[in-house]
Each structure stands twice: as C-alpha cells, then as structure tokens.
Amino acid sequence: MNKWLKAYRHSIQCLGRTKGFVVLFFLIQGLFPVQSQQSINHWRLEGYLETYFAHDAPARPQRRPAFYSSFTDLDRLAVNLLSWKVAYERKRWAIHGAVMQGSYCRENLASEPALLRHLNEAFVQWRRDDKGTLAVQAGVIPSHIGAETARGLDGYTLTRSLQADNSPYYESGLRIDCRPSGKHWAVAFLVLNGWQRIRVSRSFRVPAVGHAFQFGRGLWRIQSNSFVGPADPEQPHVWRLFHNLIVEWQAKSRWTFLAVADGGISQGSIKAWWVSPTLMVRRQLTESLSCTLRGELFMDPQGVVLRTPSALPGNVKGISFNADWHIWSHLLLRAEARWLHSVRPVFGPQENPSFTTLGITGAIILHFKEDFLASPNQKKSWLFGR
Fold this sequence. Notes:
Elements lengths: L1 H16 L2 H12 L9 E17 L20 E13 L2 E9 L1 H6 L10 E9 L6 E9 L19 H4 L4 E9 L6 E8 L15 E10 L2 E11 L8 E12 L4 E13 L3 E14 L4 E12 L13 E15 L2 E12 L13 E18 L6 E2 L5
Antiparallel strand pairs: 1-2, 1-16, 2-3, 3-4, 4-5, 5-6, 6-7, 7-8, 8-9, 9-10, 10-11, 11-12, 12-13, 13-14, 14-15, 15-16, 16-17
C-alpha cells in the first residue's frame, strides 16, 4: 500500500508540472463531436430554507458533537441552511453564484476565512453542446463525493449520515464532465484545492485529483468517486487516498435501496485508515408520504477524520427512522429519531459523557425556483405550478 500511494503521488506531481490535465482536456474534447446548439439565454433564481428543532437524550450542552456538520443546535428553533442562488445561462456559458446562512455553514466552513464562510457556490461553466456531452466547471462547486448534499431536500433522511458529515460537501477547483450521447454512463475528472477547501494556501504545491464515474440503466445506478492528494494544502506532506462507492436500486413496488461505502487512507506523520458503510431503505407510502430506515457505521481507529471530544479515536454506529410529508410541492415536513452508540464516551457533557445518545429532530423545508427567459413576455416558473 505504501508503494502504491507513493506511485500515485509521483504521477500526480508529474501531471501537474507538465500541465497534463490541459492535454487531457483537449484529447477528450476530440472524442465528442460538436452537436447543434439551442438558444439558451435566461436567469434562474432559487431559494431554500431548512429550519429545525432538535433534542438529544441524555441532556447535553447547546450543540451536538463536532462530527456533526449539520443540525448541531439543540433545544431551540434554528436554521440549518438558508440559501439564495442566482444563475445566468447563455448558449454554452453559465455563471452560478449562491450565498448561505445557518448552522451548516457555521460548522462546516469554520476553517475558511470569514468572507468565504457564507459562500455556497461560485463557478463558471462551459458546455460543448446543449446536451452537455462535454462540460467544464471552474470555481467553488458541489462535491462529487457521496450520495447526500448540504440540502436535505436532495437526500433520503433529515439528518446527514456520519459518512456524509465527515466527507466533503463542497470543493474548489476544475471539473471536466464527459457524457457521451446515447450512453448509460458518464465520467468526470477533477483537479482540486484539497479536501473541502476554498482558500488557496501560500504553501500550495500539488493539487489533489479525483474522478467520478456513474452508470445507470433501468432501476440501477452505480457511482464510483475518488480523491487522491494532499487533504490540506498547508500540510502538503499529508496525503489522502479515498474512494466512495454508491449503489442505488429503485424497486417497482415503491421501495428504494441505497448502499454507500467510504474508505480512506491517510499518510503523513501518522498512517491511518477509516471505513464507513451506510444502508438506507426507503418506502413510498403515498404520493406525499414516505419513510426511510438507515443503518450506519463509522470506524476511525486513529481519529484522523471523525472529530470527537478530546480527539478520541472514533468507532460509532447507529440506526435512524425518518418520515417525510410533502404538504405542498414546495413545502416538506420531516421528522427523525436517531440512535447512536460509540465505543468511547463521546456524547453529552464532557464532565459526564455517555456511550449512547437518542436524538429527535423535526424540520421544515421550503424551496422555490424561478426561471426568467431573456426574451420579452416569456417567463417559465416552477413556483405555484405556473
């Protein structure tokens, strides 16, 4: 494993020095012929509000442990994520920008400068054709890793899994997407500024790289994602090799099964590894009601990823039950009960920690999206079903 990691490091360094990704981009571009362009020229406005109330037993201070990146405030009404997004698209080009507020950005972007802690997205996109057979994004973009995003609306459960809260929600750098027309697969290549980082460090030497491969056919979807390189540009000697595997099956009888497995190796002053499997089973009861059962495990013997009190090594497992009620197409009510158990006492007050916790969380999600075409007297709206 040591030799394999060193070989990856050497190849990435050589690739970065020789501008290998620029060469790779033009090689890929030649494989996909230009197709006809449709006239696209419009603005898009999106709003998202996720507010919640949470209580854990046994009683604890005002916040949950540090390995939670969302829904951290307890015993009071709080906002997990409030975001506004503006996008402008014109033919092949698009510009996306989004700002946010809430406990998610307070916890998950704490290491960023104050001016960047409320930045959700900021990237420029170029597409070769209207079908997106080849696309390039540059800037602050959503993470290519995992099946859960910062927006609860996009996931199966109210709270995020342990593996989602301890892997990137966002990333900054360059992404090249290849989606051959008529194929069931897509692949992306990424050059990144570390493991969930926006600020560029003065000690930045070698970028991290990654890939995202997705295959979907019928009721199945399989995705493979990776990250290789320095996790923190300020510590370029600490390298991380990480892989994320997602398998989703949508059964015809309103059942959906989602299995996600994370595994990583960190090499620097200490050598460490971690694994985190998660299984979710979702049942659509009616058109507006659904429930999800989740089982999860996070094993981090050296404590390099799972942030626990006093930097204790983490080995946490849990099970949760989630219920969703779509009152309106833009309004979602959620409730969840989650039980977690750790091999070390990491829950509750530090003066009297506990091995086990039971959390009850309720959330209200409100969202909308408006699309304004550039041509006069034309407006396409997703709000109120117009």
